[in-house]
């Protein structure tokens, strides 16, 4: 769920302004999974725009404490959420760790990088939620390291049914700054897309794995 509607609308507006989110229903993108998609989200661009990254940092900081309580540690999911996660940790005056997709193949073979004690309360910061699988692998690694994961805060979610089911199964609360619904509403209001393109984007969101490029 979103933290609040005002934040969701403002975040969506920023993401469109800086082209972190690109909408192109007539010439779809291809994701790493092979899915065809009329939308592409690259939240790494946020770090290049001081006003936007500061807004995201501040909204994360106040809403994390409001919804989860102040944790002992902020954890970022590598690699996309390392930068913003560090900014949030600094703003909240908290230690920071990050979680690799898998343990290193050499050295200490860490998956969780940084100092983390068993029993510490952790909130995970993520940049983007699609199916939620990679994000929840990071949560699993933190739990295996002995952390008490209070929840996850992400910049944006596509709102797929499968991601909601995955987070429910993992018994983890997910809050986001913005989501697909608020993005589409704003894109229509600001005329980023036509009514027909909106319909295409809504159809894709209902069944992204089987969606075709016909518009």
Automatic annotation (TrEMBL):
Domain named Phosphoribosyltransferase: residues: 59-156
A molecular function GO annotation: orotate phosphoribosyltransferase activity
Alphabetized InterPro entries for the sequence: OPRT (IPR023031), Or_phspho_trans_dom (IPR004467), PRTase-like (IPR029057), PRTase_dom (IPR000836)
Reported cofactor(s): Mg(2+)
SUPFAM superfamilies cross-referenced by the UniProt entry: PRTase-like
Metabolic or biological pathway: Pyrimidine metabolism; UMP biosynthesis via de novo pathway; UMP from orotate: step 1/2
Binding site for orotate: 130
Binding residues for 5-phospho-alpha-D-ribose 1-diphosphate: 100, 104, 106, 126-134
Annotated catalysed reactions: orotidine 5'-phosphate + diphosphate = orotate + 5-phospho-alpha-D-ribose 1-diphosphate
Membership in a protein family: Belongs to the purine/pyrimidine phosphoribosyltransferase family. PyrE subfamily.
Assembly notes: Homodimer.
Cited function: Catalyzes the transfer of a ribosyl phosphate group from 5-phosphoribose 1-diphosphate to orotate, leading to the formation of orotidine monophosphate (OMP).
Name of this chain's protein: Orotate phosphoribosyltransferase
